[in-house]
Each structure stands twice: as C-alpha cells, then as structure tokens.
Amino acid sequence: MPVVELSYSSLQKLIGKTSKKQIADSLPFLGLDIESEDKDLVRIEYSPNRPDYSTDFGIALGIQGLLGIKTGAIKLKIKKSKQYSISVKPDVAKVRPYVTGIVAKNGKIDDKTIKQLMAMQEDLHFGIGRKRKKSSIGIHDLDKIQFPLVYTTSDRKHKFIPLNSEKELSINEILETTEVGRDYGGLLANFTKMPLILDANKETVSFPPIINAAVTTVTTKTRNLFVEVTGINKADTEDMLSVVATILQSAGFSLEAVQISGAKNSTPKLAERKMTVSPLLINQTLGLNLNTSKIVSSLKKSRLDASAKGKNIVCTIPAYRFDIFGPMDLVEEVALGYGIQNLEPTLSPSQTLGQTNPISLQLKSLSQTMIGLGYLEALNSSLTSKRVLYEMANRDPKTIISVRDSKSQEHTILRDSVLPGLLENLSKNIHESYPQKLFETGTVFSSDNPISETMNLSAVSAHQDANFTEIKSVLQSTLKTGFDLEIKTKTTEHPTFEKGHCADVMIDDKKVGIIGEINSKIIENYKIRVPVIGFEISLSESILKSL
Amino acid sequence: MLSQVFHDIEKKIITSLKDNPKQTPEILQNSTGLSPDQIRRGIEWLKLKELANVDESKSSIISLGKNGKESLEKGLPERRLLDLLENGPKKLNHLQKELGPIFGPAMGLCKKNNWIETTSDQVSSIFASNDELPGEKTLKQIGNEQLPKSLIDADDLSALLKRPDFVVEEIVKTKQITLTDSAKSINLDASSGGIDVEAKVPEVFVARTHPLKDTIDEIREIFVTLGFSEIYGNMTQSSFWNFDALFTPQDHPARELQDTFYLDGISAKKIATADQIKKVSESHKKNWRYQWDINEARKMVLRTHTTCVTIKHLAETKPDEARVFSLGRVFRNEKVSYKHLVEFNQIEGVVVGKDANLRNLMGIQREFYKRIGITKIKFWPTFFPYTEPSLQTMVYNERLGKWVELFGMGIFRPEVTKPLGITKPVLAWGGGIERIAMLKYSLDDVREFYNNNLSWLRSATKCQ
C-alpha cells in the first residue's frame, strides 16, 4: 500500500474550520490508515485505487465531504484555448500510441508541493500506470516550451539534455546510463523508433515513458505547468490526466485545455459520467432503510453528485473517480458518506448447520493419540530449504518443487517429507531436558499433474535409551487406537536411518511409510547427543477416511 | 506440631544449632562434618520451611599492617625511644643513629605526650617506664591473627588506626544461622516413617497440541457453531483461482514475483471450465482494459489467501444459501521478521443468501470476536480488489495500548460473482490466525509459533 506524508496544519488550512482531532478521527473513515504520527506530521497509507489521496489536496477534498464542510462532486473548470496543441504523428502508433495533456496556470509551487507532485506522479506510475507500462506522466514548466508540440518518434541517436543531467545524452546513453533508463528501458526494448515530444523549436520536451528534458524542470519559481500523459490506451491516459488535473485545480491552478489531434488521438474531455443506482440495492446490501434524500446526501458527502429520478438515484461521477465500475461501487460510496461508524452490526440467525470437515476431525483424533503417547506437537513450514530437507537429512532429492525469487533462503522449496523438519527442531533444542518427543501432521507435495498434496504424520523421539522397539510400539499403538489398523514392518534401507535398524511400514502389504533409528551421522551433524528414533507415514491414501 | 520428615542434612544442622544456637556456615561445616554444598542446600531448605533464620551482617576484621608487624617484633617506635632513654639522657645524634627512620615519628609522639624533655642536643625521659603505651595492648592482642573489630578496645585501637599501615581493617560479610522458634521445638527422634510431602519435586512436561493449533481449533469450533461448514482446498493453486477469478488484473502489482510465490516452471493444464475462463477473461478485458492471457492464469502459485478455495467452491456449487469457511496455510514472498512470516494460517469464510447484507457481516465478526474474548472492536472502510463495500476490523490490544488490524471483509463484487454464475450476494471475511494467537499468548514475535522452541512449547499456558 502506498504511503503519503502530510502535515495536519496544511490539511487544516485546506479543509477550513476543523480541528486536528477531527481530521485524525475522519481519516480512517475515508479508508485511510494512519501509519505513524509525529506532532504535526502524519504518515497515511492509502489504497492504490484512490490515487487522488496521494496528496493533501485530495485528502482535504475527502475530509471536507465527510465532515459536511463542502459536499458534492468536484467540477473541473477547463478554459478552452487554441494556444496549446499537440499533433500526433502516425509513427507513434506502434510504440506508444496515445498522448494527452493539460495546462495549469498561476499556481504557487513551494518545495512541499513539488515533493508531493513528484510522489503523486510516482504512485500513479506504479499503480494505474502499471510501472509506466500502461501510462506515464510528465510535468513541465510551461514557460520553457514553445507551442505547438508534436508527438513523434526518432531513432536512438537523438540527443537532448535529460532531467538531472548537465550534458546532452543520446537516447541509447539515457537507456544505458541513467537509473530511470535502466528501470523502464525494457518497455521500449522491442522498438527501434523512440517516442518523443518536441516543441515548435524542435527542442525535446519529453522522452516518454522514461524522462523529461532538463530545460522544462519545475522549480519553486515555476508558475505555469504543462502536464502530458502518454500511454498504450487512450482511456488510461485520460484517467491519469484527470487525477492530476483535479489535484492541480484543488492546489489553486487554473486549467486550460490542450488540443490533441492526429493518429486517432483527440482532445481529452475529462467529462463526468452518469450512473444509475437503485435505493433497493443500496438498502439491501447495507442492511439499512435509507430514504432517497439520505442516499443523495450520503453520496454528496463522498464528493459525488446525485439526484433522485423516479425510483432510482442518478449519480454524477467526476472523471478522476474511475475506480467506480458499477452500482455496487456507489453502494460503498453511500456507506462511506453515511459513515461506517453508524452501521450497527446485527447477528442474523444461520439458515445452515455447521460441520467440521471429517479430515480435520480425524487429524484431531490422531493428535490426541500422539499426545496420549507423550508426544508434543510441532509446526513447521511447508516451504522449507534444501539444507533441511536433503542435506542434513542425507536424503536424495527426487523432483524438487521450488518457488521463484524467494526473499528468504530458508524458504525456497516445498517439502516432500515432514521428518527432516522435526530433526531440525531437535537440533535447536539440545540444551533442553530429555526425553524430547515431537510429532507433526502436515501437507507434503509431489509433482503430479501439476502438483499433488497429501497429508503425512511424522514423529521423533530422542533420549538415552531410544531404540527401534519403542518407536514401532508407538506407531503400532497409534494406528490401532486411531484407526483399528495393524501394521507390519519390513526390513529396508533408507539414508536417513541407521542400516539394519530401519523398516518400511506396511498396511495390508502396501507401503505407507518408513520407521527406524535415525542414522548416527545425521544425529552427529545435528550435534544431538542422544539416540533418535522416528517414523513418517502417509495418511491420505490408506489411513484417513474420506466421507 | 505436625510431624515433619527431615533430610539427614537438615537433621545434622538442626542438632548442631540446638547445641550452639548461632553459627556461621563455616562453623556449621566444622560442627556437622557436612560439605560446604550440603550446608548451603540444608540452610536453603530450612529457610524455605521457615525453620532457620539467616542473618547477614557486615563486620570489620582487624589485622596488623607492615608497620604494626615491625612494632610487634621490636616495639612501637615511641617505646623504643623511651627504652633507649631508660638509663638517662642521650644525645640527639646518637638517638637518630640508633632509631633510623622511626626517629622522627617517635620523637614527635613522645614530645606531644610530654613523655620526654629536650634541650638543644640532649633528650631525657620523664615517663614511667612500666606504664603501657596507647596501642600496645591492642598490638599484642592482635598479634599475627585476624580479629573481629568488636573484640578490641576501641580507644586503644584508635591509637593505631590513626597511624600509617599499623593496622588493616577489612569489611567482611558473615551469615549467622539461628533456628526459628518452631524449629527449636522439633523433636528429631520422633520419626514418622512418612515422606517429605512439602519438598520440591522435579519438573515433568506435558505432551500437548501446539499452542497455535489450539487457537486454530478454537476458531474452527466457533465458526462451526455459527453455522459454517469447513471446506478444504490445495495450497498450490493456479493463478486463475488465486487472482483472475477474484478480479485481480494480470498486470496488478500484487501478482508480481516480489509478493507472490510462483512455482518454478509449473503451469496447470486444466484450470477451470471453458465457460468460467471465457466469462472471467471477458470481465477483465472490459473493466481493466488489457489483453488477458490464459498462460498467465495457468501459472501455479502458493495461494496468497484461502479465498481461492471458497470462490472455487462457490463456482462449483452455486448455492442460494450457504455458510462455508476454509482454514489453512497461505504464503507471501516477504522478508521474515517479527511481524511477517512467509507462511501463515488464514481463515476465510463466506455467507451466501438473498438477504445477506453488510450489517450481518459485521454482526458475525462481532460475535466471533466476542467468543474469542475480544470485545473492543470497530470497523473501518478499506480496499480489496474483489469486494465492494470492503471493511476491516480494528481490535484494541490492551497490552500494547493501541488498535490493531484484524480480519478484512466485504461483499464479493458483481465482477467476481457474475462471471462464475453466482447470483446471490456473498459476504466474505478472513484474516490471519497468528495475529489472534499473538494476542492470546502475548507474543511480540510471530516467528515463535514456528521455532518449535521446547522451553516455550512446554510452558505456554493452555487455557488462555
């Protein structure tokens, strides 16, 4: 979840008459989690579906609504203008077909605002831009640009001075030597022609989706902004632009349109949408009985516009609220505007009778049996390591099922056996008093179209007098008591066990597991100073009853 | 008084203390013939039974220093001066030669006390030579021994204490063992043949279920009594059921390698029915505007939530009325820390019914928390890709003094249910079980549940 750092005092200024406490109390009811607070500063976690909450301007709009200070939809006021235009050349169609943009004038930009705009841009890139793949954004100093602009392509030798650089670099150099070039160059890897926005003097403005030109850098002296968004889908670029436009207008800028034309591009409308929702759906879903005017006022508190039309409610949704897919999203907006704290939980009687899964019941009985025999239950991860599973237990890896790019070396492959984990547990407890007896029931994995999951039981016992007879008695008694099953043991060899002290466990002449004294080398490797005995059996096939 | 049974060690100590009521452990050692360790244990046992008092005190021990020892052998410097003058006055330079370095101090002291008279070059004694000088008695008393300061005449000792390195004072701690009144009346001869039922016994450890399993079982039980039936599903799932069927677009950040464990090179051949695949993919294309790729949906993952099990169940059974839950391990590709595990348990349940609503969902949560002993809860809005509206429960952790997030919940989006042919509202909720178990066992480090640390497993209280 993305995080934004804000100050209460600036929120207070933006919201109007309100106290710090009111703000802090309201934030969670917008769906914003306060991650930490330090006097005036507050760090807020917001959902990636609400990029408008990436700045204090957006959050202020939300709190105004919730507290009833200002309600209803935020309307974009975009001045029509022929002064600014971008013409699109057909050659961009293959690489990044769409561009859109807007001009924002006469705003004040301090360091804090620049920081916030940068953060918003990054969050937009990451979230709805899908790491700049779907859409990406460039914010420029308008006064450094000569309109009209052209969105076109060039070859990789094209040179300009990119942001944060002092000298001219070719596109290839940018992709190879700059951090953003390396991070996002992959998006252009399959193309020879590179997308570029050039101004009337053929000066480079932007090389989307990688980097802006240095000349248009926004500073605290900048008063007028030009925002461009490029992408692979027209709707996505306009969604992204609508968030930025809404935030900039809220930050005090006046918006002016940029005319876009050519190669299936057109000037963005950033228009509101209408959506109809029935009060019945709202009341049924929320378990309430709200009248239309309460629904309308709740929607307005969620910064939407709404009015009753016949039996239905017609809702007006501003462009930046593209997280609203359908009427059910409006139900949530009503709930938020109404206030989640005002929803009283009710316990409705169950129409169904509950049942524990028979497998769970049998596993529980099995646990009780093992406990009766003096065994303590252990729990280990199913995602473990080659070290535990094969190296320490001296087992041959057959087919290893591994996960990709694990962040933890201890968790890289799925276990095909439970016993090695228990041996590892004994090794971590050599300073504790003996006897030590552990058991575990757990899922093991094997490759089988594509993966089969079965339940195993394993147990180990470690103490001075541990021997084969003891562990066979335990297993025999467990299966007799638990499932009225008789076992036989048949001499075998297994690298985890001591030669001549190891047997296959058989039920009705079918092998279900292995039992014996653990190989002394393994015990030694684990620095355990007493003999260890153990078994592992598969429960799924012959033992657990499926009902 | 009740007859008591004593260990031989205790008997010997009591007998000795009856003869000699105040002894140090060292003296007891001599009087009983026991080893220092036996004495230590015996005293400890008697103290626990309130039969012996142990008074610790500090005392000073006095012994002679270098100058004191020299004085013991040759006499105090002033005595040696007076001895030289016994047979009449002597010349100063003669005395200086005889006495060497002690001449100065001896002269000073004798003059100060008016034991001698001096002229310009001659010294004579006016001291009655048979009298004892201050300090002489103490010097002899100490001799080559170490004596408690309390045994020495304080006035006489002070004469030596003032002077450099005549006596050495050491502070030592001593223990004095005495019998309590009840011990004094014990009749050791009246042996009962019983055993010491009040003695400490060795620890034995119970075999038990894992504490986390206890919490899991408790939670399972609660939901069964609330009318829910338990369903099972695999931990390895196709991306289709883990993500696509839950309206999580294929280019969503949550699906990336850094958050989700993908099984290396493993794809499922059959993931769902042709109709399910067609309708789910259409919902993605329409709402998320991208090219849906079936190969992406085939990729096998370790389930990131148990919701994949319930949605699959609902897609198969399409019930009009149902309460089911699934409980089991889920996985996140995260760095392991005191807060995060790569593998943990989750419970996730659904209520299907034509009248199911958000307040019912909240009511089930409130009832569940009440039954596990959590009464201070509240609900906050939140976001999940597959539910709308979505809420999370916040519960108050008394120990930490703050609100912590527990189960998430919501109503499955129509974009999830419609393509799978589920027509009635589905209330869904779920969350991590370790978090609840941490509250129950007052743990701050979630890793403890999987450390299998015997000292913890053997000591964690079963009924929380």
UniProtKB/TrEMBL annotation, chain A:
Cofactor: Mg(2+)
Keyword ATP-binding in record: yes
EC number: 6.1.1.20
Subcellular location: Cytoplasm
Main location: cytoplasm
Annotated Gene Ontology cellular component terms: phenylalanine-tRNA ligase complex
Name of the protein this chain belongs to: phenylalanine--tRNA ligase
TrEMBL record, chain B:
EC number: 6.1.1.20
Localization (cell): Cytoplasm
InterPro entries: aa-tRNA-synth_II (IPR006195), aa-tRNA-synth_II/BPL/LPL (IPR045864), Phe-tRNA-synth_IIc_asu (IPR004529), Phenylalanyl-tRNA_Synthase (IPR002319)
Gene Ontology biological process: phenylalanyl-tRNA aminoacylation
One Gene Ontology cellular component: cytoplasm
Domain annotation Aminoacyl-transfer RNA synthetases class-II family profile: ranges: 219-439
One GO MF term attached to the UniProt entry: phenylalanine-tRNA ligase activity
Highest taxon listed in the record's lineage: Archaea
Main location: cytoplasm
Keywords of this entry: Aminoacyl-tRNA synthetase, ATP-binding, Cytoplasm, Ligase, Magnesium, Metal-binding, Nucleotide-binding, Protein biosynthesis
Annotated Pfam families: tRNA-synt_2d (PF01409)
PANTHER family according to UniProt: PHENYLALANINE--TRNA LIGASE ALPHA SUBUNIT (PTHR11538:SF40), PHENYLALANYL-TRNA SYNTHETASE (PTHR11538)
Family: Belongs to the class-II aminoacyl-tRNA synthetase family. Phe-tRNA synthetase alpha subunit type 2 subfamily.
NCBIfam families named in the record: pheS, PRK04172.1
The protein's name in its UniProt record: phenylalanine--tRNA ligase
Species of provenance: Marine Group I thaumarchaeote SCGC AAA799-N04
Encoding gene, per UniProt annotation: pheS
